[in-house]
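step: validate -> pass
step: tokenize input -> pass
step: predict -> running
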Amino acid sequence: MSNPKIKPGQFPFTRGIYTEMYQQRLWTMRQYAGFTTAEESNKRYRYLLKNGVSGLSVAFDLPTQIGYDSDHAMADGEVGKVGVPISSLQNIETLFQNIPLDQVSTSMTINATAPTLLALYIAVAEKKGISSTKLRGTIQNDILKEYIARGTYIYPPESSMRLITDVFEFCANHAPKWNTISISGYHIREAGSSAGQELAFTFANAIAYVEAAISKGLDPNQFGQRLSFFFNAHNDFLTEISKFRAARKIWAKIMKERFGVKNEKALRCRFHVQTGGSTLTASQIDNNVVRTTIQALSAVLGGTQSLHTNSKDEALALPTDDSVRLALRTQQIIAHESGIPAHPDPFGGSYVVESMTDDLVKEAFEIIEKIDKLGGTIPAIEEGWIQNEITRSAYAYQKDIDAKKQIIVGVNQFEDSEESVPELLEIDAEKVKTQIQSVTALKSSRNNDQAKQKLSQLKSVAQSKENVMPSIIDCVKNDCTLGEIADTFRDVFGEYQSS
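step: predict -> pass
step: emit ->
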């Protein structure tokens, strides 16, 4: 059992990373958004800011995630579908038009092309007269979970790790307030892992990043301060609260005992939570409001630093303005009406939660030990061991649903055959077409000799051991596109093919 005398803000931070937690400052309220075009997404961001979000969270479309411009043949049919299409500095300028980047915290869910999106964000901030040293936010930049659970990788693991640690190094010197990575358990859980596996695989990935950064000569006492995490809030209320408490203890022990970190700020596990997308049902979507509320409560009771609440219609389409507002209001009601924020770690001392917390810590360390014996995360991924463990867990969960051992209201029990179809958000095909045409037009109107020169310089840097970030920033400022930058890296690093 955890020592009840240890208070919030004390190592190993099981009870919270700050003494007063939400008494002084609430968690950052985010709503993940992006669709159709930069212009349409900008409207959604300004709508959310008007309604009280305290941080932006950017969703990118699939071509942007895997390094293709909107006008590329590989992007056909996918532009603007699951996020905002970003191919150029023009697009990112439109996306953040009339938004004060020195006053908001921006989270960008992007991985394989993360260095380019960060470069674009820095470039647009500088055009607004804002130094990169003033920028606050997070770039996901977590490629290992892409090989495990999500699939939006481009380059082989070794080259991807080089790009990630280049971001660590660059931000330490030029963007000290920026969180250089958000190590994600969210997508691992969405793929079907258990709570214990979510913790273990997330922290095994984190160990690999720390080791890679140390081998680059970086100090974990310094870069460790800017590492952040991203977890899922699933349905089992008490398990999820315990999971968040366990996460802080596990990370503090790893950083202190494995890496000898002494800086207390680098021992703190700071994390964002998103309610479980895979728990949303396409039938009886109003039930999703209840699910999301329970999940959001677990995140707050578990001490999250940032939270996104899913909208009720997301199992069917991108959310409408009304459903996004209701999801945000869910957070605001918890924050301002529930009384929960007045009490740091209110479930601390509960024999159920303390026992669950200890069990999850034990389980996670046992799994990490198995990964260590396999040679670490990358060998465990390349052998398919981690993926197979998740698949087994997902299969067992689905069998329980099929056998009605696990009840999903409105799906395998309490169905409603006369349910009406809700109004859904639709992607405007004409606006998508305009986005594609604008990228083609940019490539015709820019100084192409200059763009080619900058891309050639980037290729030389990629072939060397220099940090790629200054060259990427130089490229985007000279109208090189995201796809062209990704292709330059493809030429140097090649593409990863899963076995």
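step: describe -> The two ends are 42 Å apart (CA to CA).
step: cleanup -> pass
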